């Protein structure tokens, strides 16, 4: 039950058994159980965090994107909780003070008005750690835009904590002077987030450019260098962003999920990004060069509207030294009886055989109706899948304005960056669910 707001870290040994890797602490007899405020969506996101790299102590960070905080005047801003592991008791988690402030204000024509809107921003919808660094994001954070009249654009924002939560900084790459649906106004930065092994931050913003979506990379040191809460519009040095492509890529949601891995045989990791409504809604997952953000490989979904790319994860599943890719398609339907398809969800495991070459996927198909398997990022060498028992999985949803934002007649810019690589759906696009 969602209103019990309990999270059971039930580390499913399913994948481990199938591929013969070793799991760790797969304790289904005595799981650590944490609880959070009722209705806060406590457990929506999770990651492990090691406070001291020299000590073998692990904690669990748990996002609760509808939690209330002590921020004055903010309703359900969302929070991330710090939980000791193993749990001493169910109530052992504490909110991490990423942001204690109210909405910042600005003066427009002599009157003070909010610059931003943190209520219902879904902070904690995503949380990721990398050594001493933690990032957590609020994809539905809105700001009033640079326009004179002001609007409310869901650009999203993230907060970084470093050195065991001794310092915090905000990072909102889509809060830019490129608003509205055609720009970054509906970006929802931080809808997905990850770190490369060297600590570079990877941020997905699936709503930019008429919901084409985008992926952004940035160094954490560069975010912190010269950081000021007053710098509302800030271009961080060294930041990279995928740009707008042709309008045929509208509504594809690049960056709905992100991960990183090594797929070219060198030591510079590539980005992996889910595009669950791309490829005529078959969905695809792109491997993206981290140096120039070019698309260098695609995996394409097999069933329309299955949300292939809803989640992605990378780990060396079979221990051969090559990173492998796991893709979730939670709305995949089993069609044994064409008259009554069953939405069971499917996970695809692509083993890398050589740089940018992958074996046909191993399939894990759900057994329970509407189970909606969600992959979580693998921890070190172990693949973990986390399941919320009996819970219909909510999702922040990619925000769309109430009035239809049909793309206006605007010429495709000849200076636009090259379009995403073409994809090859495995079936004709005529099959509609
Ligand atoms: Ca590489
Ligand atoms: Ca492998």
UniProtKB/TrEMBL annotation:
GO terms for molecular function: integrin binding. Keywords: Cell adhesion, Glycoprotein, Integrin, Receptor, Repeat, Signal. GO terms for cellular component: external side of plasma membrane; integrin complex. FG-GAP repeats lie at residues 25-92, 109-170, 175-227, 294-359. It holds the Pfam family FG-GAP. Residues 1-23 form the signal peptide. It is a single-pass type I membrane protein. The keyword Repeat applies. This is Integrin alpha-8.
């Amino acid at each position: 039950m969602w209103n019990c707001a309990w999270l059971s870290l039930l580390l499913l040994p399913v994948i481990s058994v199938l591929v013969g890797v070793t799991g760790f602490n797969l304790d289904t007899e005595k799981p650590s159980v944490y609880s959070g405020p009722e209705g806060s969506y406590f457990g929506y996101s999770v990651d492990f965090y090691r406070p001291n790299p020299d000590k073998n102590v692990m904690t669990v960070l748990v996002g609760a994107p509808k939690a209330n905080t002590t921020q004055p005047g903010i309703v359900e801003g969302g929070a991330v909780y710090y939980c000791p592991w193993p749990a001493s008791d169910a109530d052992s988690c504490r909110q991490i003070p990423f942001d204690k402030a109210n909405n910042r204000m600005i003066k427009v024509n002599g009157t003070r008005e909010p610059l931003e809107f943190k209520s219902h921003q879904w902070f904690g919808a995503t949380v990721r750690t990398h050594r001493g660094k933690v990032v957590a994001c609020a994809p539905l954070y809105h700001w009033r835009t640079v326009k004179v009249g002001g609007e409310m654009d869901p650009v999203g924002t993230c907060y970084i904590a470093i050195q065991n939560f001794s310092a915090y900084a905000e990072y909102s790459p889509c809060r830019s002077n490129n608003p509205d649906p055609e720009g970054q106004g509906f970006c929802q930065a931080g809808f997905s987030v990850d770190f490369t092994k060297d600590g570079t931050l990877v941020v997905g913003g699936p709503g930019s450019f008429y919901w084409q979506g985008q992926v952004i990379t940035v160094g954490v040191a560069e975010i912190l260098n010269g950081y000021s809460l007053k710098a509302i519009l800030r271009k961080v040095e060294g930041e990279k962003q995928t740009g707008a492509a042709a309008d045929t890529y509208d509504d594809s949601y690049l960056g709905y999920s992100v991960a990183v891995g090594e797929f070219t045989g060198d030591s510079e990791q590539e980005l992996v990004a889910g595009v669950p409504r791309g490829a005529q809604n078959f969905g695809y997952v792109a491997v993206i060069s981290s140096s120039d953000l070019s698309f260098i490989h695609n995996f394409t979904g097999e069933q329309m509207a299955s949300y292939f790319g809803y989640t992605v994860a990378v780990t060396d599943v079979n221990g051969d030294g090559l990173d492998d890719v796991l893709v979730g398609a939670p709305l995949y339907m089993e069609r044994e009886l064409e008259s009554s398809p069953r939405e069971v969800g499917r996970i695809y495991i692509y083993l890398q055989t050589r740089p940018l070459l992958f074996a046909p996927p191993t399939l894990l198909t759900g057994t329970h109706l509407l189970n909606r398997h969600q992959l979580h990022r693998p921890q070190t060498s172990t693949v973990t899948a986390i399941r919320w028992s009996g819970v219909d999985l909510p999702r922040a949803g990619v925000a769309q304005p109430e009035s239809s934002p049909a793309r206006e007649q605007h010429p495709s810019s000849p200076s636009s960056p090259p379009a995403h690589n073409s994809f090859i759906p495995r079936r004709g696009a005529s099959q509609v669910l």
